[in-house]
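Reopening this one. Same input as before:
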Amino acid sequence: MEVEIKMVNILQEVKMKKINKATIHNHFDYEDLYIGNTSDFENLPEDEKFSDEYMIDVDPGMYQMIYWNDEGPDSVSCNSKKEYIIESITNFWGEDQFIQKFQIEDKIDEAGDKWESVFNKHVEDNLDMYFEELKKCINDSYPDKDSSHGIVLLENDKIIAGEANKI
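Same output, byte for byte:
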């Protein structure tokens, strides 16, 4: 009896399953986000396929924050916790709510024009505290037709805050 042994590159298999696409149904049906990889979306039955109009590519990264509203999704991808925290606060959430939350207004005011370096140092010294607060903000976020977004955060392709439907 002959036995065939087939070697499989597991790392290659895992890489192929990374989240790299996100979409909503349309402008009127946008409450739910759908995430997956290219092959997941391509292999859907014809009557379940999504329109390309709202489909986005999600860049690879250890942390992927995908946010959406009735206009469709967008994303930020980062390769470290520090990079994710600073990037999402600076370019999405804004510093003010965190300055108030962590009561560092006096330090920021004293720094004058150098307030940003003081803020970034506080973030670096308290990464886990900021990370937990960001996850709370994400879990309290829901999409609407005005300015609010639904948000999901993935860490190594696992949802750790917010909600999304995996394809």
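So the earlier flakiness isn't reproducible anymore. For the record, Residues 10-166 form one domain.
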